[in-house]
């Protein structure tokens, strides 16, 4: 069986089972563990599957952004550690961007006592939190308000970003894999690309539970980021794929 045929067979088996172990694939295909792992790495790089402990599963489809009330109760300990690690990278007098989301809020909670920063964000929750707690300068992007997430997106917000030179942007993601971060919201793509263009340094802040999910639109490739800060639950295969793209990986 040539490599293409093996990979097609793997996709068939994963499609039927949802999740399948490497041992089962070895038995079904009649090849070595090393051959199966090479095939899986290729399929993961192509964004077709995601490797998990001892096996592989089909990528989970994200059709809509989770509600803010739901996200507030997801991976809270991991987000707290990510927020602390991200905050430690912010130099004195920096102009930073905090993306929408509860992980960005965790960063905000760790810098509220500072008075030397210029903080730009599209997230109303982040801005409201900081407004009564920090002496740093705050700039809300404005734009089209997403009521479910209380964040602004679209061309108005993107045009505002074009006026700034940002030292470091902390960018969040509801879904990501070896190719990059994805979103079901086209207007978010416009904004994230504008953030990337306006920022000297881009850091992805996202917990490991969001790895292996995919949405309709690719917002940014992983190579756009200098660093990814995530938790230690990230699978070993994913760690290797990130480092293979010359992106720094900080696990907290």
Structure write-up:
By secondary structure, the chain is of the alpha/beta class. It folds into two domains: 3-58, Orthogonal Bundle (Arc Repressor Mutant, subunit A); 68-251, 3-Layer(aba) Sandwich (Rossmann fold), CATH 3.40.50. The chain is 39% helix and 26% strand. The protein has ten helices and 17 strands. It has helices spanning 3-17, 22-29, 33-45, 68-71, 76-87, 102-111, 124-131, 155-161, 186-198, 236-244; strands spanning 19-21, 49-52, 55-58, 60-61, 95-98, 118-121, 137-140, 144-146, 151-153, 166-172, 175-176, 180-183, 199-205, 213-214, 217-221, 227-230, 248-251. The strands form five sheets. The chain has a seven-stranded parallel sheet, with helices on both faces. It has a three-stranded antiparallel sheet with strand order 1-3-2. The chain has a three-stranded antiparallel sheet with strand order 11-12-15, covered by helices on one side. The longest helix has 15 residues, at 3-17.
């Amino acid at each position: 069986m040539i490599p293409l045929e093996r990979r097609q067979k793997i996709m068939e088996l994963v499609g039927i089972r949802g999740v399948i172990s490497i041992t089962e694939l070895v038995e079904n295909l009649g090849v070595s563990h090393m051959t199966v792992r090479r095939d899986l790495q290729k399929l993961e790089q192509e964004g077709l599957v995601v490797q998990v402990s001892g096996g592989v599963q089909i990528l989970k489809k994200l059709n809509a952004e989770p509600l803010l009330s739901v996200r507030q109760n997801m991976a809270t300990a991991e987000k707290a550690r990510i927020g602390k690690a991200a905050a430690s990278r912010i130099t004195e007098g920096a102009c930073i961007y905090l993306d929408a989301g509860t992980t960005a809020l965790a960063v905000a909670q760790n810098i509220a006592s500072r008075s030397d920063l210029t903080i730009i964000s599209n997230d109303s929750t982040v801005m409201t939190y900081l407004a009564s707690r920090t002496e740093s300068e705050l700039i809300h992007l404005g734009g089209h308000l997403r009521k479910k997430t209380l964040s602004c997106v679209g061309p108005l917000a993107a045009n505002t970003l074009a006026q700034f030179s940002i030292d470091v942007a902390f960018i969040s993601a509801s879904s990501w894999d070896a190719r990059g971060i994805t979103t079901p919201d086209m207007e978010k793509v416009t904004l994230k690309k504008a953030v990337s263009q306006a920022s000297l340094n881009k850091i992805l802040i996202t917990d490991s539970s969001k790895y292996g999910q995919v949405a309709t639109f690719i917002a940014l490739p992983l190579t756009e980021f200098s660093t990814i800060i995530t938790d230690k639950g990230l699978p070993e295969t994913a760690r290797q794929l990130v480092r293979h793209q010359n992106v720094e990986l900080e696990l907290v």
